[in-house]
Amino acid sequence: PPDPRSPTGVPEPPTAPDARRQSGERLTTAQGLRVDDTDHSLTAGPRGPVLLEDHHLREKITHFDHERIPERVVHARGAGAHGTFRAYGNAASVTKAAFLAEAEAETDVFVRFSTVLGSRGSADTVRDVRGFATKFYTSQGTFDLVGNNFPVFFIQDAVKFPDIIHAGKPHPDREIPQAQSAHDTFWDFISSHTESTHMAMWAMSDRGIPRSYRTMEGFGVHTFRLEAADGTTSLVKFHWKPALGVHSLVWEEAQIAQGADADFHRRDLADAIDAGAFPQWELGLQVMPDTPDETFEGIDLLDPTKIVPEELCPVQRVGIMTLHANPENYFAETEQVAFHVDHLVPGIHVTNDPLMQGRLFSYLDTQLSRLGGPNFAQLPINRPHAPVNDMLRDGMHQTAVHDGIVAYKPNALDDDRPTASPDDGFVTVATPVEGTKGRHHPVSFTDHFRQARLFWLSMTPVEQAHVAQAYAFELGKCASPRVQENMLASLARVDADLASRVATGLGLPVPAGDVPEGVEPSPALSQVPTEPGRVE
Ligand code: HEM
Question: Per the similarity annotation, which family is this (predicted)?
């Protein structure tokens, strides 16, 4: 049988111990040479100079010098866990992806939760978006659902991603995350790029300070295209629903937790798993018809700043994930894991959402430098649990032994080379593409306030109070009066009462509540009940 440790399926040499493990009882060099003494360098005489000849000394220090790899450019601070996903089988009507379609199918998963802006050593309970990335090691190859704990994103086009991140990250001069200038640029970006209005409100809501990773929802954000065995397609949004419900900290708790325990969330996750209180999430789908205009009830499904309200399209639960094991080694697993939106399996496809399309480029590109070359799929945490026979060759950190001299198909020299799979391989759904080249501004992407208003109106009075306080607190950190005024003007386009509360909190004049034409909920959205208490 193919050797699961070998990406090519080539059996490992019989005498080689498992390369992933340390073995033997004696301390050795990396070459397996037993070391006589690890506490004293080789010197010329008891008080003499240290000799360059000391291989053990040089190897030990050189390896130490290279222990760090670059942290992720975003989502650097994270915590991971292993688990299992079990499918209910009811998704077979919409997707042929075996791990979703086959009832009771069990699939290994690795999940990494993260904050976005902080560095690797930053505190867990800051106000921020949380990453919720899941690697499904399916029998058909690896599928990654690289989502967040908010259902929308700040921007509609990946070309702005470096801009929003640079606006929010610590500045190059002082590198102080909470500097006034970083507040200025962040809120300047939000008020100048008004498609961010909706997501910024999620960040200011209690969702921005989760109580625990175990009590967060997760969202694939983008619309995906699912394909059933009979070829029918649908447009779908992915949701994770936590068994423990959604819970947040209040701001004061979050601040105290940061000081008392910067590792509050990662400790909570690891402790819960150690104690056998395994966290669980159900995976849910909002399934919408695959129409030529890719809209649903007037909502452009390619716009990642929009939700589809669950009242208009309920979430159907299709399986359950249980996290039951902590990583053995943080670096090998949580740090070296590489997620990618483009890791797909038959039955799941991407769409033309311009943010999603940019991500398809970004993840592999960044991992090439973060993980030192093109062979990081061979790292144990990234190895598929399906057989791999890729005919790729060489490269930095190659650990596989690729057999065969002929690395192409078809060929006339070696019939044993791996064959393609027209029957059950990944075939891109044949969606039509046409249009004029250009940097377009779709009209359907211009509604920047309606869903922010819907979100605001959906909250309870307590939740609304938290949101208004959060805006006032965060905008109060800005040094620029112009940025504060611009944000108040933007909030006035969402809701006059919200703008007035924030202005009062800042001690500034209340802006005119001139909700412009077209900002009131569309007929479809106005069907959504907006009384307090609607949000789960
Ligand atoms: C990392 C989610 C948009 C670039 C991540 C991670 C998550 C995530 C969860 C952490 C992965 C991990 O734990 O290793 C999202 C979501 C987005 C989004 C939900 C929008 C809906 C973007 C965009 C870009 C981008 C538009 C670039 C154009 C990156 C990069 C990393 C990253 C470079 C670091 C990856 C690594 O070093 O392994 N993202 N992201 N993201 N994201 Fe995104």
Answer: Belongs to the catalase family. HPII subfamily.
Residue 62, classed as helix, strand or coil, is helix
Q: How far is the CA of 276 from the centre of ligand 1 (A)?
A: 30
Place of tokens 């939700």: 307
Nearest CA, atom 5, ligand 1: 75
Ligand 1 atom closest to Cα of residue 356: 26
Kindly name the residue from 56, 75, 82, 349 that is annotated as catalytic: 75
- The packing angle between helices 161-168 and 354-370, to 10°, is 70
In 24-71, alpha helices (H): 55-65
Cis geometry, peptide bond prior to residue 422 (ω within 30 degrees of 0) = no
Is there an atom of ligand 1 within 6 Å of 221 CB?
yes
Catalytic (active site) residue 247: no
Average pLDDT of the residues of the chain: 93
One-letter identity of residue 74: V
CB 76 within 8 A of CB 120: yes
Return the axis-axis angle of helices 496-506 and 461-475, rounded to nearest 10°: 50
Q: Give the H or E element holding residue 225.
A: strand 224-227
Distance, in Å, from the CA atom of 512 to the CA atom of 514, rounded to the nearest integer, reads 6
Task: From the CA of 220, give the closest atom in ligand 1.
Answer: 19
Options 56, 82, 148, 343, the catalytic residue:
148
Note the pLDDT tens digit of each residue in 30-77: 999 999 999 999 999 999 999 999 999 999 999 999 999 999 999 999
Q: What's the pLDDT band for 124 if we cut at 50, 70, 90?
A: very high
Look at the pTM and tell me if it is higher than 0.90.
yes
Q: Tell which residue, 162, 170, 147, 131, has the closest CA to residue 334.
A: 131
Q: Which of 69, 71, 72 most suits a substitution to test ligand 1, by most atoms within 8 Å of the C-beta?
A: 72
Q: How many CB atoms lie within 10 A of CB 478?
A: 21
Residue type at position 167:
A
Q: For ligand 1, is residue 199 a contact (CB within 6 Å)?
A: no
Helix, strand, coil percentages in the chain from 3-state DSSP, rounded to 5: 30, 15, 55
Instruction: Give the 3-state secondary structure of residue 368.
Output: helix
Distance CA 478, CA 509 (A): 16
Task: State the DSSP string of 192-224.
Answer: HSGGGHHHHHHHHSGGGSBS-GGG--EE--SPE
Based on the residue annotation, tell me whether 75 is a catalytic residue of this protein: yes
Query: How confident is the model over 212-265, as pLDDT tens digits?
Result: 999 999 999 999 999 999 999 999 999 999 999 999 999 999 999 999 999 999
User: Does ligand 1 have an atom closer than 6 angstroms to the CB of 360?
Assistant: no
Long-range contacts of 501-504 (CB under 8 A, 24+ apart): 501/468, 501/472, 502/468, 502/471, 502/472, 502/475, 504/472
Give the C-alpha separation, 475 to 125, whole Å: 19
Distance from C-alpha of 401 to C-alpha of 247, rounded to nearest angstrom: 49
Token pair of 56 as six digits: 């053990």
